[in-house]
Amino acid sequence: MSRIHKSIEVNVPVRTAYNQWTQFEEFPKFMQGVVEVEQLDDTHVHWVAQIAGRRKEWDAEITEQVPDRRIVWRAQQGTPNAGMVSFESVHGHTRIDLEMRYDPQNLAEQVGDILGLASRQVESDLKRFKEFIESRGEETGAWRGQVPPA
Question: pTM of the prediction?
Fold first, then answer.
């Protein structure tokens, strides 16, 4: 599996950044290639994306969620991926750390992985999230529930 680790600082409090990140159905607004995200229940999310020119779908399970701290997930079926996003207060701003593991499925995805395209995509998505939340100044919604680690 390939790994990506990216960080960004956003000029909003941790609570605001975290609350917005819990609004998975808003992800297509700042994640390029993400076509649709449907929150099925508190711990299950269905994703539809265009990756390397192909439509990909997968169901992810949130395996841990601690408000204002972290969200951990793994794909249950479909495109293999897993990861964690964490939130840390830094002088009134928020540092977001995103770690992802994914398995390139075909030649185009493998070549893109070698060229660092996925890594650059994640970095661009984080920058768009920063622009999205900073331009609004507040979240579009929030889910403050907890999911204890299994």
Answer: 0.93
Helices (H), 9-143: 14-21, 107-114, 117-136
Q: Are 35 and 48 in contact (CB under 8 A)?
A: yes
Asked if residues 22 and 71 have their Cβ atoms less than 8 Å apart, the reply is yes
Q: How far apart are CA 42 and CA 45, in angstroms?
A: 8
Which pLDDT score is estimated for 19?
Answer: 98
Neighbouring C-beta atoms of residue 83, cutoff 10 Å: 19
Q: CB-side exposure of 61: number of CA atoms within 13 Å?
A: 6
d(CA 104, CA 112): 9
Neighbours of 150 (CB within 10 A): 7
